[in-house]
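During the reporting period the student researcher (J.K.) took over the structure-prediction task from the postdoctoral fellow and processed the backlog of single-chain submissions. One of the processed entries is reproduced below for the supervisory committee.
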Amino acid sequence: MSMRYWRKSFTIALLSGAAGAILFLFVRPQFAAPPVQQASLPRVAGKPDFSGIWQANNTANWDLQTHSARPMIAQPGLTPNSVVLAAPVIGLGTIGWVPGGLGVVEGNDIPYLPWAAQRKKENLEHWMDRDPEIKCFQPGVPRAMYMPYPFQVIQSATKVMMVFEFANAQRTIHLNKMEPYPNVAFMGYSVGRWDGDTLIVDVKDFTDATWFDRSGNFHSDALHVVERYTPMGRDVIRYEATIEDPQVFSRPWKISMPLYRRLEPNAQLADFRCVEMVEETMYGHLRKEQLVKRWVGTTMTVDVTRTIPPGEAVHERYISGNPPAK
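J.K. obtained the following structure tokens:
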């Protein structure tokens, strides 16, 4: 066999294999989840016991919709339509890029009203100034369920308590009759009921101070979320959330994903009380002598200039102890 023939055959084999792999990616069959052995599920008062430590494994906290890799903060590159890392994150290199990922939104469409679609675009462009996660605000629902931190579920016959590693956020799902909630909250107010082995949770009374992800997807204080928790086995929950907000969206829309039980023998929540971690980020510019002025790396120097958005100037002066003259 000649060397030329061998090379030709090897090239055809490689191309065939690559084509088969690409075809598999796009037409691979959708395997049904194995049937849950109901008798094997741990139970409380006859219902599935979700007690344990859980965590999502996706990129939804970066972006609910399907997305390709992009800089956390971008500036135009040298070639047309290219982008590179901007000054605040350039020292992070590859870590400064958002990982690409498949979306969790049904139909991959978030039905914003026209004004809200523009706001979402502006939020993404000003992500570092606006994302409540950066300021250590409690993440809200459903965002708390898919942040890259574990959370713990403690369940009884009448309550399901969730404790989140991020910001020590907490929520309680009330399974018994409760009076209407008299206020608004970052995590909303949750009332649940069982439909067979599926826990359905109605969440209302939100503030408008949380986002859905790091891409600027937001809501108003009219947000209403209906969650469904369905066991797919002892260690996997199918999580669904239907989102309704007539002030921001033209119709309800839904996200879904699996939540996985952490199976390490010593699985537990770590301490991530981030309030003190963001003091310099939020208020460092009020110092007479700023601690953060420049970043010096091995091959570059990045100068950081802090400014106060006009709408926040009065607020910041009150915080600094120098309120404006009346």
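The committee noted the following: Residues 1-32, 313-326 have pLDDT under 50 and may be disordered.
J.K. will present the remaining backlog at the next meeting.
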